[in-house]
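Quick question: what would this complex look like in 3D?
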Amino acid sequence: MRPLFKFHGGVHPPTHKVESTRTPIARAALPSKLVIPLHQHVGNRAVPTVQVGERVLKGQIIGRPEGRLSSAVHASTSGTVSAIDMQVVAHFSGLPDLCVTLIPDGKDEWFPHSGVDYKQTAHSELRQRLRDAGIVGLGGAVFPSDMKSYSHKHKIKTLVLNGAECEPYITCDDLLMRERARDILRGAEVLRELLYAEEVLIGIEDNKPEAIAAMRQAVLDDGHGHMEVIAVPTLYPGGGAKQLIRVLTGIEVAAGVRSTEMGVQCFNVATAYCAWRAITFGEPLLARIVTVTGNVERAQNFEVLLGTPVEELVAQAGAKPDTYKHIMGGPMMGVDLPSASVGVTKATNCIIEAAQSAFPPPEPAMPCIRCARCADVCPAELQPQDLYWFAKSKDFGKTQEFSLFDCIECGACAYVCPSHIPLVQYYRFAKSEIWQREKEQQAAELARERHDFRQQRIEREKQEKAERLAQKERAALAAKPPAPAPLPVAAPAADLDNTLQMRVDADIARSNMQMRIDAAAARAKEQATAEQPKNTDALTPQQQAEIAEIEARRAKFHEIASHSGADDESPKHS
Amino acid sequence: MISALLVMVGIALLLGAVLGYSAIKFKIEGNPLVEKIDAVLPQTQCGQCGYPGCLPYAEAIAKGEADINLCPPGGEEGIHKLAELLGVDFKPFGEGKGPRAKAVAFIDENTCIGCTLCLQACPVDAIVGAAKQMHTIIASECTGCELCLAPCPVDCISMQTLPENISNWKWQYPVFPIKAIK
């Protein structure tokens, strides 16, 4: 029996998991349309590679990854692209983002794809395959998985597979582990291979005995020697990566340190499953398991195509009419959806239909009484009451001193607050305010640099110009004597009087000037003859036709313009 | 008595020498306060303060010639920072001189005649173009100083406020509707 460790704090909210675990995972019906956001992952938004009206096949890339930290987006089924535009997406802001709208043709026709044997394939190619298959962390953080499967910087000893699923209501990982345990472990094996990890620890909260049994059976059946399924105590937020690593290995991942530096990497079970499908069968991430629960007739898990509108999904579970909002994710950290028409994304693990009875609107916030219950439950060992105080008074420097950025926004503090203060909102406000300021500071730095550079450049150009002029003068002086031959020779003669000397100088200056003007004129002439327009040579008949058309249009406009000019002069009656 | 005097004089000379040496060795070029003030200013180089750029304004503040409330792009936040740095009281913006929404310049490319006047006006080289070639603005480098508006002979430059999108959206300060308790 492996000794387990504890993390600080934690809460025990009612789990509500039984409702949605009674039936196996169902395949959701093909929706009437798919709204697929191009930014479903951490990093840069994918760049659309299809056009409106184009027919796409299932699994075809419709958004290619842009930059290093990005991931591909695919067509979830075959059909026609009907729009690429800004649509409301599942985000706290409720703002629109670029989405591809796909009308399925019902044929579900696959794009040609093929897998590889991971043992025979170079790691760099495996990572590229993960990236092209759009595999991201499905626990909710949606961080591109290829970026997490490097091990060259630090030696990874332990791969932690996260099946804790600590948030209430959500059961998608539970059902996945019950039904597809073998593929999850095979995926874990691929990831272990990529990381050269020695052991795989699979942490599952002990309120999921069926999943634990299924996973243990799969470990035995497939003879995964270095894998261990460990039941961890049910305690929210035990599924946070840092918390689970702490419980399983006893390693405390310090602030600002990545777990890989401590020799641990963490993946969600669903990510491992999708990685296996992507590597071995070449299937990109097109669908995910989504728990539909709350105020519905039949709470259950669905395998849902990415982009399926939430309203069409919840209808299949029998949505009841008195639902007043839809929550994506769990009740502790979830997003209130701005609209029921948003598409399911890679981050959508759960849709909770909220009725007034189960999810009453938040009670009015009362003043903080500094009972410090929030500090007792904070899994990051922060002082939430102080953070709240500083965030409320917009003292952002102090919030950073009190380690605001270690806050994982789990909501345990707000859950226990007897004054019903929405603490997490204050922390989020403070965080985004600090980010904003950092951005502005960087912009100011950049502007300063550019301004300084510009000043320098202007200074340099001035100097260069002055030097050029001086050089020219010198050259002119040096070239002067032989040109107007007779006069300068006579000029130095001592017996010439001053007036003659002056006249000679003036003559030289005049002839000099005349020479310069002549030279400039010659240059201009040369340029004029040299600069023949070249872009009208060798035109195709099509281009000529286009030009003729444009000329005709121009002539027409001229005509209209001259007419309307005449009209203007006559008095108008209407 | 004499020896005591000599010791004291000796110490005085030694310390004087050390001080004199360090005054030369560790001499700070320029006014360090100017740098600190300049770091607080938003570097738009817009000249709305009446000085030709952020650094000249910072110098003027350091000399005590300029007020701290002359920089609209810095916002009230900027005045607070300056007040804190200089140990003076906060001073609000003058009437109608407050900050405006952040905007970037936009060139109507159909109207642009390629005169390069805006290029010369831009303090951060955020405009791309050449003589008789269409110009355009690199929005990410534009500080929104509006210095390019005046020189344009065809008035083809306008300021466009940046729309809020997912990447620049930020959490608002939590506000709650007050409910009357009967």
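Answer marked as accepted. Residues 125 and 143 of chain B are 10 Å apart (CA to CA).
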